[in-house]
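Hi F.,

I've been meaning to write this up properly since the lab meeting, where we talked about keeping a consistent format for the predictions we share between groups. The idea is simple: the sequence comes first, exactly as it goes in, then the structure tokens exactly as they come out, then a line or two of notes. No screenshots and no reformatting. I'm using this chain as the first example so we have something concrete to point to.
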Amino acid sequence: MAGFTMQYTSLHSNSTSARDFDKEDEHYAIFTNANDWAYSKPSESISEEALNSVFGRIGYSYADRYFATASIRRDASSKLAPENNYGIFPAFSGSWKISSEKFFHSSFINLLKLRAGWGQVGNVALVPNYSYNVPLSMVGPMAMGVDGSNLIYGLYQNTISNRNLKWETTEQTSVGLDISILSNSLSLSVDYFHKLTKDLIDRIPISQTAGIATEPYGNVGSVLNRGWEISANYTKYIGEVEMNISGNVSTVKSEVKDLGGREELTHSNSTDGGSSRPLRSAVGQPWYSYKLIKTDGLFQTQEEIDNYTWTDPQTGVSQKIQPNAVPGDLKFIDYNDDGIINDDDRQYMGSYLPELTYSFGADFKYRNFDFSFFFQGISGVKIYSGYKKMGYQGRNNGYVLADVLDSWTYNKNSNIPRLSIQSDPNNNFNSDNNFFLDNGSYLRLKNVTIGYTLPKTLMQQVGMRGMDIRIYASSENTLTFTDYRGFDPEVGNTGLDGNTYPIARVFNFGLNLIF
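Output, unedited:
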């Protein structure tokens, strides 16, 4: 098989705004009734994007025992500079159905197949249009003149063009085993994968003195992900009950292999718009790891603060490590042993990737009744809780969480720091520290459904022969079991919870009609 695809996207947007209406009636607040048209200049943007792909695939099988597939594709994107806009991505896979061999004889094992594969895929999803020739951006209006009545607009370079940016390539090698036993009622699949992403695309940190508002995208290094995936399915009839039970579990370990000579990469992801940046990547660590200042509980007395000192090995002079602390403040670990608590004391503390991802469910049918459920969960995962960072300090920042009533200010046995209503000289809430790192493991009942199909004899009696009517009730995201104190442990966003809107619980009731 061979083919060619072409995708072209053209975007054209414009906006116009006006203000100062005499009244707010919805039928009056239209453009022609505005009194002020000078506040905002009309804007317009035009962009184009094209993607061309040429691909081919060939397959081979012999005697229901040996199977092989090979493919290759060439993708080209207008997002990249002409000299780097294409990538070539081959793939190969094969399997050996051992149970079809003449030498294989087993009344217990019905299927035994060994699989292996290797392949590459490309990605430029993160890359914006015209990354190699960034258009100028507009800023303004800026009030100029003696009375500020002269409104001036300007142009500036928002980011840096990068003609060297090329396709991100993910190369995966996998081996697997499929087995079915007990007259094919129980099937099991086991896979091991080794996935290396090269020329990884992400934002490149640049100096603030460069005068650039947005960090440009570039190829920053390579990351290795490897792990296991196991799935099982069991089907059984017990009398008139038909049941199907399934489940799967997977593990993944991430490791940065290269950052293009950099020691560390600071990611711009934040829970509060930019000032808090707890994520870093470094060689030997997982991609998007937490790098935080470690805490050691709360200071209970001024004496503890006075005794927490550092002695200069050259002069022998001692000094307080946290001179601005008061009782009820967090105690920080001086990781680099220099007597000062700052970003140099950050330590790597894992990543947002779960150690284990799993799911299980079942379907049951008994005569005209059917029932099903599905659970999904993760464990060994950490969440950086921005909602605690904003809601525990007690300031007028939009909301205060009820947990502050159990803070050190009211309960001296609490692990929650004292309220910092007016100021935070110890940086309890202004630093990226592991007090805000929470266990994000959860088990969620994603779906449960019960239904009843009206008997065919009844349908015939009411003159609806050949029609099936099923009445059902179901719910989505029904229950969640977790120790996480935030709105929802399923935060996404590389593990940063900046008050992520929770997944809705949905209840459905309905009819299925089949003619």
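Notes:
The chain has a mean pLDDT of 90.
The longest helix spans residues 302-307.

If this format works for you, I'll send the rest the same way.

G.
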